[in-house]
Amino acid sequence: MSRIHILSSTDRPGSNALKVSKYAERYLTKKAETEIFSLMDYPFEDVVGGKYGNTPDSVKDFNSKFLDADGFLFVIPEYNGGFPGVLKFFFDYLPFPKALELKPVSLIGEAAGAFGALRPVEQFEQLLKYRKAYIYPERMFIQRVNDSFDPESGINKEILQKLLLSQLDGFPDFVEKIKSLDVSVDA
Ligand SMILES: Cc1cc2nc3c(=O)[nH]c(=O)nc-3n(C[C@H](O)[C@H](O)[C@H](O)COP(=O)(O)O)c2cc1C
């Protein structure tokens, strides 16, 4: 069985990102071992002042636990038309260049606004492509998240809920397939 780690990509207390992460986990866990990581638990206080090239042990520990998986789901909110700054902080302290190289990554956006974090998800995809991840083509953008998403029942629009469940059902299979290819960076 593959292992999929989920990142709730904000440190905002009470975030919808964490609620969506928990909802997604309930489905992913049918086909994969899962664990949720939240940037609320990231040791930001240890990287103040710029510790690039001298990564603190607390950050190495967070990163190595998060990266110990076959696939990754990022749940990304929209802040000012982009993804949260803390997600970039997290990304910049991942081991370079291999952290997510040739790793399957799935993406869910959620926002208060009408575009459901389309912008931040697509911005983050640019980073993932640069770092050579395999992006799962089915993505979900949860628009008007405060009205449209329920932590127990998911999205209250049937067609969107179907798409969300299709993504969550298909991603573990995608992870298994990539794993079975046994691709390596130097191949
Ligand atoms: C700093 C900040 C900036 C935000 N900017 C946007 C925005 O540009 N567009 C939008 O639709 N919602 C915006 N929101 C609302 C979030 O999308 C909303 O809080 C949503 O629940 C996702 O964030 P959460 O996971 O922190 O709850 C912003 C929220 C914060 C805290």
Care to give the gist of this entry?
It contains 6 helices and 8 strands. With 187 residues, it is an alpha/beta fold. The radius of gyration is 16 Å and the shape is globular.
Q: Based on CA inertia axes, which overall geometry fits?
A: globular
Q: Uncertain runs with pLDDT below 50, 5 residues or more?
A: none
Secondary structure class reads alpha/beta
Helix content: 25-40%
SS summary, helix count:
6
Would you state the CATH class? Alpha Beta
From the 3D coordinates, which CATH architecture would you assign?
A: 3-Layer(aba) Sandwich
What ligand molecules are bound, each kind once? flavin mononucleotide
Whole-number total of structural domains: 1
Q: Mean pLDDT, rounded to whole units? A: 97
Beta-strand content: 15-25%
What's the name of the CATH homologous superfamily?
Flavodoxin domain
Q: Would you spell out the secondary-structure blueprint of this structure?
A:
Elements: E1 3-8, H1 16-28, E2 33-38, H2 57-67, E3 71-77, H3 85-92, E4 104-110, H4 118-130, E5 134-135, E6 140-142, H5 145-148, E7 149-150, E8 154-155, H6 158-181
Parallel strand pairs: 1-2, 1-3, 3-4, 4-5, 4-6
Antiparallel strand pairs: 7-8
The protein binds flavin mononucleotide.
